[in-house]
TrEMBL record:
Name of the protein this chain belongs to: Protein SCO2-like, mitochondrial
Entry keywords, A to Z: Chaperone, Copper, Disulfide bond, Membrane, Metal-binding, Mitochondrion, Mitochondrion inner membrane
Primary subcellular site in the record, as a coarse category: mitochondrion
Disulfide bonds: C126-C130
Lineage: Eukaryota, Metazoa, Chordata, Craniata, Vertebrata
Length: 259
C-alpha cells in the first residue's frame, strides 16, 4: 500500500489533503476529529424536486384513471343505445291502449307522455310472484325518489285478469304498495289489446270448485321513456339495485325524438 502511495503521491496527495476531517476543539487543549456523514461527490435528494416528481406521477395516474372511466361509460352508453334500438325494432309497446285506472278514469298511453314509467302486468289474486315483483318495482321507485336530480318515475300495474280485477278490486290492491301506483283494468278486449302491444303472454288456468283459478303470464317490468317508447325490460333475476342503475343510465342518455 505504501508503494502505491509513493508512486501516486505527487498527483493524489494534493487532492486527498483537501478532505480533512472536521476538528472539534474542547477546552483544556484536547482535540477531537469528527467523522463526516457525507462522502464527496454525493448529494441528498432535493425536497422540491422529489415532490414535483410525485405530483407528476399522481397526475399521470389520475389521468389514466379518468380516461378508463370515460371509455367505460361511453361503452356502456353505446350498449344501452344498441339494446334500445333492438327493442324498438321488435315493435314492443308501439300501439296505444285504452283502459280505466283504479279511480275509474279513462287512461291511454298519451296520458303518460313526458314521464318515465315502470309498468308491470299481473293480477290481484296472484299468490306470490306478482306481489314480489310489484314490491321490487316499488323499491326501485322509492330509491329513485330519493335522488332530487332525477325525474319522478310513474309506477303502473295492468291486470291480465279483467274478469275479477275490476276498478274496485284494483283500488283495494294498489293501496298496499305505493301511493302513486296506478292500477289499470278494462274489458277483456281492452286488456288483450294492451297485452299484445307489449308482447305479454297470459292464459287463465282451469277453475277449481271455488271458481278460483291462476293466470299464467309473462313476468317482466317494462320501462317507458317520456316519448312513450318502450326502452327496456327487467325479468325476475334483476334486483332492485340493478334496475335502479339501469333506469339512471337510460335517464342520463335520453334524448327526445318528438318534435
Amino acid at each position: 500500500m505504501s508503494m502505491v502511495l509513493q508512486a501516486l503521491g505527487p498527483r493524489v496527495w494534493p487532492r486527498l489533503s483537501q478532505f480533512k476531517p472536521p476538528v472539534l476543539r474542547i477546552p483544556g487543549g484536547e482535540t477531537l476529529y469528527v467523522k463526516s456523514r457525507h462522502w464527496s461527490g454525493q448529494s441528498q435528494p432535493q425536497g422540491p424536486r422529489l415532490r414535483t416528481r410525485l405530483l407528476i406521477t399522481a397526475l399521470f395516474g389520475a389521468g389514466l384513471g379518468w380516461a378508463w372511466l370515460a371509455a367505460r361509460a361511453e361503452k356502456e352508453q353505446r350498449r344501452q343505445q344498441q339494446r334500445t334500438e333492438a327493442l324498438r325494432q321488435a315493435a314492443v309497446g308501439q300501439g296505444d291502449f285504452s283502459l280505466l285506472d283504479h279511480k275509474g278514469q279513462p287512461r291511454c298511453k298519451a296520458d303518460f307522455q313526458g314521464q318515465w314509467v315502470l309498468m308491470y302486468f299481473g293480477f290481484t289474486h296472484c299468490p306470490d310472484i306478482c306481489p314480489d315483483e310489484l314490491e321490487k318495482l316499488v323499491q326501485v321507485v322509492q330509491k329513485l325518489e330519493t335522488e332530487p336530480d332525477l325525474p319522478l318515475v310513474q309506477p303502473v300495474f295492468i291486470t291480465v285478469d279483467p274478469e275479477r280485477d275490476d276498478v274496485a278490486a284494483m283500488a283495494r290492491y294498489v293501496q298496499d304498495f305505493h301511493p302513486r301506483l296506478l292500477g289499470l283494468t278494462g274489458s277483456k278486449e281492452q286488456v288483450a289489446q294492451a297485452s299484445r302491444n307489449y308482447r305479454v303472454y297470459y292464459s287463465a288456468g282451469p277453475k277449481d270448485e271455488d271458481q278460483d283459478y291462476i293466470v299464467d303470464h309473462s313476468i317482466a317490468i317494462y320501462l317507458l321513456n317520456p316519448d312513450g317508447l318502450f326502452t327496456d325490460y327487467y325479468g325476475r333475476s334483476r334486483s332492485a339495485e340493478q334496475i335502479v342503475d339501469s333506469v339512471r343510465q337510460h335517464i342520463a342518455a335520453f334524448r327526445s325524438i318528438l318534435p
